[in-house]
Predict the structure.
Amino acid sequence: MATKKKKHLLPGYGLSLGYTLVYLSLIVLIPLAAVFLRTTELSLHEFWAVVTTPRVVATYKLTFGASFIAAVINMVFGLLTAWVLVRYQFFGKKVLDALVDLPFALPTAVAGIALTAIYAPNGWIGQWLEPHGIKVAFTPLGVMVALTFIGLPFVVRTVQPVLEDFSAEAEEAAASLGANRWQTFYKIILPAIWPALLTGFSLAFARAVGEYGSVIFIAGNMPMISEITPLMIITKLEQYDYAGATAIAVVMLLISFVLLLLINLLQWWSNHRHGNK
């Protein structure tokens, strides 16, 4: 008996796939390949010398370290914000829900200037922190604050729909079986929202790694202290050192790719583990 050929839901599957591959190649693959090819102007020794100078290494540590910490903070407080928006009704809820998207719409330079004005030693918040020896503006802490600001919506908007679809009956069943609130959250709710939470974390982290506009104002851009890697790349470009700029960009791409790959593998493992239960 002849087997029927499997039909795809959308017509023109082959043509659509072809357009997709061409589009991704033009927008993503070819530009990235050009970055890698530009580094071939440097020998391996020159490449290593450029990407391992103490100043550049310091920018790696600040950029990836602050991005990771900011993403972790957003994962915790983004979940809390999404929980409040989904589970509670209160006056001003629509306004709070709209404010979550503000970092999406606000130009990054405006965000950086606003954060600097607030956390500067004479700012609204900075003037109260300064007497206690807490400096935010023009320090690595300021970089982390800016990255937390721009990354929050990614976690909230990723987790919020999952919480909205989560059935309250599962919580009621857990409570009827004697589970307390923490056990209900840890055993019932967290496994259901964990993949979305990891996705929000990876999006916030990826955005933070490449952030430039909102950071340069509050960072102060002091070498070895508060200088981020994207600024280091811009500095190389202003010096017409295009090969050096692309060498640093390649390192950023590779590190970001490896970290995001690990996060995706963790997400796949989590889905597979909970799916088999």
